[in-house]
Design goal:
Helices cover about 35% and strands about 20% of the residues. With about 575 residues, the protein is an alpha/beta fold. The chain folds into four domains: about 90 residues, no CATH class; about 70 residues, MutS, DNA mismatch repair protein, domain I; about 180 residues, Rossmann fold, CATH 3.40.50; about 200 residues, 3-Layer(aba) Sandwich (Rossmann fold). It has an eight-stranded mixed beta sheet with strand order 19-20-18-21-22-17-23-24, with helices on both faces. Strands 12-13-11-14-15-10-16 form a seven-stranded parallel beta sheet. It has a five-stranded mixed beta sheet with strand order 7-8-6-5-9. Helix 19 links the parallel strand 19 and strand 20. The two termini are about 25 Å apart. The C terminus is likely disordered.
């Protein structure tokens, strides 16, 4: 009889053996209620946390389902300590409830009066609420977000049924031109957020892979609510893509959809803005110039694109706009700053998620192979690396000059493919552009030139293109089928996923996608690579390790070692 695949520790750590026959099934089940922390070759390390359990609860999971599954798949008896903790986290989900008392006030209610009494005496809560003579707990509607933040930090996520402002009505229809039709999972995602228009819905996060049509889910939510909408996204290119998508897939006209950026400041029934414009201020001591945009368009819905990148000042603003419906869209519900609790409390819990490999199996994502190419350091660079500070070591490893040879070998190998070379450091990218005679897009490239080069890439006139981190998001290049990552932002899981996502759009010819990450061998960059790959490992993507020397000889990339 095969031993069970899990080892469950009392602190909430869960070890999953990757060679176990039940690995794939166990990995998919764990992803519903645990977070992947490390993924070495033979054992993956997960952790069960309050946020992971509360997101699971929001998707309908129950302690009665999760705990027996853990115990039934654990190799050794599971400590009572952890099962009790999981049960308690499930119990606490929705134990605190907010309901509307009047237009200006909300009431905090709990089925457990003792817990309520304990919570409201906490220093972070007592200044937000007021208790009347009968013991009922009220708060001003404008402090709604502040209370939800405070309570989630105390371990009591709030079931917010305080209702929403409808916003100004906006009548439009989805367009069926050019064969556009909502996919089944896009309809389900929008419906999971909307929940029939009741106060049970109207806030939360939809998690879908890059290339799966998150913009379309946002449009579907707009269509369900028929209210003025503010869309917040990462940059001006993304703004214009949203504008184009909305106009192409709905009956809304140019006069209905406005761009609010550094170039144009049009407030329309649908207004699309950047996070950057909202956080702009003239000086460190000045207020945020455009933060009042939230209140200027009678918006009944706010859509946060790439919600995992939501800046802290927008979080603070969000605390004050809890009366608007809020939809977060992301491919990777992880934040490198650890603020998952703020996304949970202020935007809402996870409402819908679909695994990447599931969409790949349905043909909505291209089949992808991932390779970690380990590039040695030259003798001179090795000496510099060993004698440098930790900070300088990172840069020395990242712009390793021998990566240029590896890029050249890969470009020759993929001469007939549509290749994106993407990296973090501008000096490195400029050198690659000069050596290989390729166009380069950076943050300094004006929008007109970016649009021209992206169009040339899509048409095949420019088959190989180098992009800086501006290419991480909102680049609509469906024909790209190869990505070569030469450097990145330390151990960023979301960046790794976003970059793979640039090449996952299904190909007209049914072809596959190939992702290479170039890593300086035996350096801190190799350590960062392990963390970067965590989210994708959780989604079922394995990296095959090859040496840079294999790219130059007769050795095939099929000779790689999977991790």
């Amino acid at each position: 009889m095969t031993e069970a695949p899990l080892i469950v520790q009392a602190d909430g750590a869960v070890l999953l053996e990757t060679q176990h026959p039940q690995y794939e099934v166990a990995r998919e089940r764990l992803a519903c209620f645990a977070e992947l922390e490390k993924s070495p070759e033979y054992v993956h390390f997960y952790r069960i946390t309050p946020i992971s359990i509360w997101n699971a609860a929001a998707l309908g999971e129950k302690a009665e389902q999760v705990i027996p599954w853990i115990e039934g798949n654990a190799r050794f008896p599971v400590a009572k300590e952890i099962t009790e903790r999981i049960a308690e986290w499930f119990r606490r989900y929705g134990l605190m409830r907010l309901e509307k008392a009047s237009d200006e006030r909300l009431e905090l209610i709990s089925a457990e009066s003792e817990v309520l009494s304990e919570v409201i005496e906490h220093a972070t809560v007592e200044d937000i609420i007021e208790v009347d003579d009968s013991g009922r707990v009220f708060l001003s509607a404008v402090r709604r977000g502040d209370l939800k933040q405070a309570l989630v930090k105390l371990g009591y996520p709030v079931d917010d049924r305080g209702g929403y402002e409808s916003g100004a009505g906006m009548d439009f229809e989805l367009s069926c031109d050019e064969g556009f039709q909502l996919r089944d999972y896009q309809q389900k995602a929008a419906a999971a957020f909307h929940m029939g228009g009741s106060d049970l819905g109207g806030c939360g996060v939809v998690v879908l892979p890059c290339g799966a049509g998150k913009t379309v889910v946002g449009i579907a939510a707009m269509n369900l609510l028929k209210t003025n909408t503010l869309v917040l996204t990462t940059n001006t290119i993304a703004v214009r893509q949203w504008v184009r998508e909305i106009r192409a897939k709905t009956s809304l006209t140019e006069n209905d959809v406005g761009e609010y950026t550094g170039d144009h400041k049009n407030i329309r029934p649908v207004t699309v803005a950047t996070y950057q414009i909202l956080t702009h201020r003239r000086g460190k001591l000045d207020g945020f110039t455009h933060l009042d945009l939230f209140d200027r368009g009678s918006f009944g819905l706010i859509i946060y694109d790439e919600v995992h990148l939501l800046p802290a000042p927008v979080f603070r603003a969000t605390a004050g706009i809890q009366a608007r419906r809020r939809l977060g869209l992301t491919a990777t519900l992880v934040r490198e700053d650890g603020r998952q609790d703020e996304v949970f409390s202020l935007i809402g819990p996870k409402r819908y998620e679909l695994p990447w490999k599931h969409l790949e199996g349905l043909g909505f994502l291209a089949v992808a192979r991932c390779f970690e190419v380990r590039v040695p350091l030259s003798e001179d660079r090795q000496r510099r690396y060993e004698s440098s500070s930790a900070r300088n070591q990172i840069r020395i490893a990242a712009d390793n000059e021998l990566k240029t040879d590896a890029v050249g070998a890969l470009l020759r190998q993929h001469a007939k493919d549509r290749v994106l070379v993407i990296g973090q450091y501008l000096e490195q990218l400029r050198q690659l552009a000069t050596v290989f005679g390729l166009p380069l897009i950076t943050g300094q490239t004006n929008n007109a030139e970016r649009d021209r080069l992206y169009a040339a890439f899509r048409q095949g006139d420019v088959p190989h293109l180098i992009v800086s981190k501006v290419g991480n998001f909102a680049v609509d290049l469906p024909d790209a089928n190869v990505a070569i990552q030469v450097s990145g932002t330390f151990g960023s899981r979301q960046e790794e996923a976003q970059r793979l996502g640039r090449i996952l759009r299904p190909k007209d010819d049914g072809g596959t996608a190939t992702f290479y990450t170039l890593v300086s061998a035996a350096t801190r960059e190799q350590e960062f690579a392990k963390k970067r790959q965590l989210f994708l490992a959780e989604q079922g993507y394995a990296y095959e390790i090859i040496g840079a020397h294999d790219l130059h000889g007769d050795a095939s990339i099929d000779a790689g070692v999977s991790v």
